[in-house]
Amino acid sequence: MDNFRSLFSSGKVTILMYHNITDGKEDYMSVHKDKFKEQMQFIKDNGYNVISLDELYSYYTEGTPISDKSIIITFDDGYWNNYMYAYPVLKEFGFKATLFMITSMIDQKLYLNKDRIREMDANGFSIQSHTVNHLELNKMSYEEQLYELNQSKKTLEDLLGREVKYISFPYGQFNKETIMITRKLNYKLAMGTVREKAIRKNGLYNLNRIAVFGNTDIKQFEELLNKN
User: Fold this and answer.
1) How far is CA 119 from the centre of its chain?
2) b vs e for 195-208, b when ≥16 Cβ sit within 10 Å of the residue's Cβ?
3) Regarding beta strands 49-50 and 30-32, do their DSSP bridges make them parallel or antiparallel, or are they unpaired?
4) Would you list the DSSP string of 168-185?
5) Which residues lie closer than 8 Å to 26 by C-beta, 6 or more apart?
6) Residue 82 DSSP class
7) What's the pTM?
């Protein structure tokens, strides 16, 4: 039987971060589709429980129990290949995932179009904000940051007909003003990019993620999942 975490445990949760899923040559940010499927198979075969950001938020704010082996799967940017290669695999395994979309890239070459975004969001692949233009927020004025966080949220809410509650900060960069705006706009959680597990004591707007790179083999993937 799974062990379950309560609000009073360490609060550490593994949030995986992907970008490109490719059928061609791998690079730093591109994981081959076969390797991605192997990683998802490993998650299934080893008793991990893939949960949503909604479940993580309930765990952190209300103490709703989650499995000790809980994992969250996320994608940044909104590349078309996420639909082509990741989406079918996630559906095959029955896994939930979150995709943080750069809203200025919707309908652009190599990125998702509106129809695919709606389809994925309706089928277990929650679409959330990755700002409008994917800029370093900590180098921007308050007004510029407000635009990036507010307009991306509004664009997606208009497209999906529901509230957008989560955001991934581009490059993991933010400052105090970013957090103020994030809270003001009623985002519930915000993601960074540090290669560590998410932990409640760092706050709801500074959640670490563990990046999976193109050269991550299955042994290294196992080590990522087992990080303390």
Assistant:
1) 18
2) ebbbebeeebbbbb
3) unpaired
4) E-GGG---HHHHHHHHHT
5) 32, 35, 214, 215
6) I
7) 0.94
Cβ contact 71:43 at 8 Å: yes
Closest CA to 21 of 107, 96, 110: 110
Q: Report pLDDT digits (tens) over 109-165.
A: 999 999 999 999 999 999 999 999 999 999 999 999 999 999 999 999 999 999 999
Q: Is the pLDDT of residue 33 over 80?
A: yes
| pLDDT over 70 at 3, yes or no | no
- Asked if 113 and 139 count as a contact pair (C-beta separation under 8 A), the reply is no
- Distances in Å between the Cα of 191 and the Cα atoms of 32, 102, 116, 155, 187 are 24, 14, 23, 19, 11
Residue with tokens 């943080």: 100
pLDDT on residue 227: 81
pLDDT of residue 83: 99
Q: What's CA 102's distance to the chain center, in Å?
A: 13
8 — pLDDT class (breaks 50, 70, 90): very low
Task: Give, in degrees to the nearest 5, the angle at Cα 170 between 35 and 77.
Answer: 45
**Which domains does the chain carry?**
12-225 (3.20.20.370)
Contact status, residue 226 vs residue 46, Cβ threshold 8 Å: no
